[in-house]
Design a protein that fits this description.
Layout lengths: L2 H9 L13 E11 L5 E11 L1 H14 L1 H18 L3 E11 L4 E10 L3 E3 L4 E6 L4 H4 L11 E10 L5 E4 L4 E5 L2 E10 L2 E10 L5 H8 L5 E6 L8 E13 L3 E12 L1 H14 L1 H18 L4 E9 L7 E10 L4 E6 L16 E13 L4 E3 L4 E5 L2 E10 L2 E10 L5 H9 L5 E6 L10 E2 H5 L7
Parallel strand pairs: 1-7, 13-18, 17-24
Antiparallel strand pairs: 1-2, 2-4, 3-4, 5-6, 6-12, 7-11, 8-12, 9-10, 10-11, 13-14, 14-16, 15-16, 17-23, 18-22, 19-23, 20-21, 21-22
Length: 452
Amino acid sequence: MSFRALYIFFVFLFFLTPVVASQDYYQNENSLYKVSKDGSALVKMNVTVLGPQKYVKVQLGIIKKNGLNYYKKELTEAFERRMKRRGYGVKWVNVSVKYTNFSIIVFYTANITNFSRYYSYDNRWEITLDPLHITEIGLLNFSRLKGTMDWNGTILVELPKGSVVLEIPKNFSRRVGESFLLVWSRRVGNSVLVHSRVHITGGLNIEDVNRLFGKPRAFIITYRGFEGRESYLRWVKKVLLNVTVYPDRTVLDKVVEYVSPESYLEELKSRIRVEGVQTREKVELNALKRIYETEGVKVLDGHVKILEVNGSGPLKMVYHVVVENTAQTETYTFTPRLGLENLTFLHRIMAEFDYSAIVKIELKSGKFISIPKGFNVEENGTYFRLKVKREGSLVILNEIDHVRYGTLYEDYERIIQRVPATVSVSYTVTSPSTCGPAIILLLVLLPLLRKY
């Protein structure tokens, strides 16, 4: 994207570049969303930039020199990116620009999808608004802001006929020094009106920014009246880990299979192709060895293979590591949550997750001291299930985790707390060479569990 396009992108609220302002910046944004029963919306939006006059004049000069068609194209693409960041699709968008010697006004008319989403989890439609423009503000460089930035916004959401309004955005205010955030809303018949103001003064340090924008909250409109269809991404990952314990060594073979979503698979594959498959394999292997060495574990052999980088199937990361046994008793610690405790959604789980892991621990030497019990934690379609099976010198841990789309985050936090953070398998290693304190096998396996 050219400098001029990038500059236009900032001026009309999209903020892709750090802002350097020696004068005050004023902007008004008014938006009307007419929501259909399928969750799509007809959008009418106008953005008015009133200052600083220096930048307005620069823009007027560029517009007059290059013509409006070029800038309308850039503004259209910027609008589409902005909607994408907020999780909406854009069917079509029309842009027009008007200007005076003191201001620039941009008019948008568009049709967007997924503006309102249906959740069978609690049988309601939900619209998440961003009146404080948090998705764009996160791209600002406050340390370089010299003047004052003042944004006023009005959002009018017209709901479908027959809607029963359950919730509208709660009023909100926060102040740090002379900077402040304000949101207030009210219901007007079958519509919801939301006003907002963001006033930021120059000279904010990182602590001020965290106090002002930390602990974000969701501004939500919920309603019922009719059922809908759910549309969401499904994240699927499978892990198979074989741990084979010999008298003098332990062999660890792990396969991580990334199945979906397709967009994420393509992103991973693209990154690996750019870097080079063999280069990434060496990076992964060296990372393993460094962690082992840090923990005082000797690596006898190891390699990493990455498969299906150029194929259409799931991406596979294959790890093989052989380490020297150095303790008489080992403990393998398994994490049944499979990293799903780290989901960072604001209000709801906005995707479906299906993660599974099979861990097989086979003793060619020694005996098991303790093995964990299985469990089944389930609530309203979300579940974490661990099955444990022992067959002589073999223990199999089979974990299946499913997180339902639309689960309220407060419900999810309660569910995840019921799932054990770790379970352990302990066993002895029969070898005259082993001595010293016990080593937690988790340290040996940790590199194999790292996310790419």
